[in-house]
Design a protein that fits this description.
This protein is α/β, with parallel strands linked by helices. About 35% of the residues lie in helices and about 20% in strands. It contains 5 helices and 7 strands. Bound molecules: guanosine-5'-triphosphate (GTP) and magnesium ion (MG).
Length: about 200
C-alpha cells in the first residue's frame, strides 16, 4: 500500500470524543520508549508527525492520524510508565483500557515489544487481556537494528515459543521492524492494506 496523505486529527483522553467516522483504525501500544511514535512516522514517511523522545512518557494522549483519507493510525501513551504518580497512572490506564474496550472502529492493535528484552510480564498480561476481550492484535518487535540478523531470528522464535507455552495455542501475527533503518515497513503496510480491504468489502 502506498501512503498518499497523513494528517494529525486530534488528541484526547476520552474514547467518546474520538473521531466518529466509521473508518478502520490501528492502535500502537506497548511500554514507554518502545518506539510506537517513531514507527508511525516511519510507516507514513514523516519525520515528526507523531512526537517522539529519548525520554519515556512522551505520548500522553490518544492521538488520531488520518491516513489516505480513509483509515486511522492511533498513537497511545506507553503502559507501565513508572514516572507518573500513582493517581495519574490509574487515570492514564483507565482511559487506555476504555479505548480498547469501547472503540468499535479498532480493527487491530499492534503490541510493540523491544527486541532486546525478554518477554515482559506487562506485555504478556496485556496480550492476554486483549485475547480475553476479543480484540485482534499483532506483535511488532521494534529496534531490530540493535541486533544482528541471526540474533533476531533466534529472539523471535524464543519469544513466540514462550507465548505458546504459557497462554496461546497459536502464535499471533508478528513483524520485525526498525524505524531507524525502515525494516518491516512494506510488510506492515501490506498487512494493514489487507485488513482495510476486508473491512470495506464487508461493509458494502
Ligand atoms: P512513549 O511515547 O514515551 O510511550 O514512547 P514511544 O514508544 O512512542 O517511543 P518513541 O517513538 O518516542 O521512541 C523512543 C526512543 O527510541 C527515541 O529515542 C527513538 O529515537 C528510539 N527509537 C525508536 N525506534 C527506534 C528504532 O527502530 N531503532 C533505534 N535504534 N531506536 C529507536
Ligand atoms: Mg510515543
Amino acid at each position: 500500500m502506498k501512503i498518499t496523505s497523513a494528517e494529525f486529527v486530534m488528541s484526547n483522553s476520552d474514547v467518546a470524543k474520538c473521531p466518529k467516522e466509521p473508518l478502520p483504525e490501528y492502535a500502537f501500544i506497548g511500554r514507554s520508549n518502545v518506539g510506537k511514535s517513531s514507527l508511525i512516522n516511519m510507516l507514513v514517511d514523516r519525520k515528526s508527525l507523531a512526537k517522539t523522545s529519548g525520554r519515556p512518557g512522551k505520548t500522553q494522549l490518544i492521538n488520531h492520524f488520518k491516513i489516505n483519507q480513509n483509515w486511522f493510525l492511533v498513537d497511545l501513551p506507553g503502559y507501565g510508565y513508572a514516572r507518573v504518580s500513582k493517581k495519574d497512572k490509574k487515570i492514564f490506564q483507565k482511559y487506555i483500557t476504555d479505548y480498547f474496550a469501547k472503540r468499535e472502529q479498532l480493527v487491530c492493535s499492534f503490541v510493540l515489544v523491544d527486541i532486546r528484552h525478554k518477554p515482559q510480564p506487562i506485555d504478556l498480561e496485556f496480550m492476554e487481556w486483549l485475547g480475553i476481550n476479543g480484540i485482534p492484535f499483532a506483535i511488532i518487535f521494534t529496534k531490530a537494528d540493535k541486533l544482528k540478523p541471526g540474533a533476531i531470528e533466534k529472539y523471535v522464535t524464543t519469544y513466540l515459543q514462550q507465548l505458546l507455552e504459557t497462554a496461546w495455542e497459536e502464535a499471533p501475527p508478528n513483524f520485525v521492524t526498525s524505524s531507524a533503518n525502515r525494516t518491516g515497513k512494506d510488510e506492515l503496510l501490506a498487512y494493514i492494506g489487507e485488513i482495510n480491504q476486508n473491512f470495506f468489502e464487508n461493509k458494502n
